[in-house]
């Protein structure tokens, strides 16, 4: 059996190129997470609180499309939030719903402000016009199917007491997710929340949770009406203006998880398409941001978005130079990963031990399909709501 030294001596330039590609592929998943936690050690995310009489007025904006099943509960949940009396205005935008959403919401007027559209315009079209017309210094953006903890508004808005912070994102926990995704999804979000907390301490997180985030209204800039993922572009705009976007893990919300693999695939495709759109248009790049944020942006987002292309490039190179030692090892590893994912897919939740490789390969496929769709401009900004 060859010694390790002998193997290393046998490595040539094809192996060196492949090694670089493999490191680039692995970096956002395996290297960056411990690195950002190390860099954030000893730093604390921004935290503050307004004196009791100085909390800002805030508008909670809820865009709703055919949400008759939850809109009543959402309005009741919003009106019961713990926020200084008289300083919270709940705004419901009925975006051309064809069900009873508007009729149900009218039961709470004038306790809420109801804006009705005759036809569907999309979330971003509405946000551009509604936010521009608000007078409150803080706006909180929410989905209709996300229920907030009673203190969630305070926990979100208090982050904005720090003058360096312009946007704060909450922690939305998914419930009743499809069985084949539940365990892997929990692991994924646990890692993501950990990264967001470390990034908030180091500099700023990239993007926000579109179901639950607050921003200072003066920092809002209208985005193109056909923007696919505004919860990336709007927070990046905030950072481009010299402010920070931070994670508020104590601002809790709950949302119904996806009901099937197909629904999750469509969701991931849409997110990837939106990322590609933002990069092509330029409004997803952190122009003018400090180097710390560029480091976070490239490490956490850009290299993840590009990872399917890097991975395919590595496999293509390995296949072309299959006689190289590292190439054979890389091809064997890729085959083993694919086999594990396929076995998990066919066996279903019974093969829980293979959740990680399955979810990874599943995500890479969706990422590739979505990014190509976004580059081609074939992803609609109007999200097809799943029937539940």
End-to-end Cα distance, whole Å, is 58 Å
- List the secondary-structure elements in sequence, H or E: HHEHEHEHEEHEHEHEHHHH
**Helicity level, as a percent range?**
40-55%
Order of strands, main sheet, comes to 3-2-1-4-7-6-8-5
Describe this entry's structure for a reader.
- The protein is an alpha/beta fold.
- It has a domain of 207 residues: Spore Coat Polysaccharide Biosynthesis Protein SpsA, Chain A (Alpha-Beta Complex), CATH 3.90.550.10.
- It contains twelve helices and eight strands.
- Strands 3-2-1-4-7-6-8-5 form an eight-stranded mixed β-sheet, sandwiched between helices.
- Helix 4 links the parallel strand 2 and strand 3.
- The longest helix is centred in the C-terminal third of the chain and has 30 residues.
- It is globular, with a radius of gyration of 23 Å.
- The relative contact order is 0.14.
- The N terminus is likely disordered.
Write the layout of secondary structure elements.
Layout: H1 4-9, H2 13-40, E1 58-64, H3 71-79, E2 88-95, H4 101-105, E3 113-117, H5 123-132, E4 138-143, E5 146-148, H6 152-158, E6 165-175, H7 179-202, E7 212-216, H8 230-240, E8 244-256, H9 261-281, H10 291-320, H11 325-347, H12 355-375
Parallel strand pairs: 1-2, 1-4, 2-3, 6-8
Antiparallel strand pairs: 4-7, 5-8, 6-7
Helix pairs in contact: 2-7, 2-10, 2-11, 9-12, 10-11, 10-12, 11-12
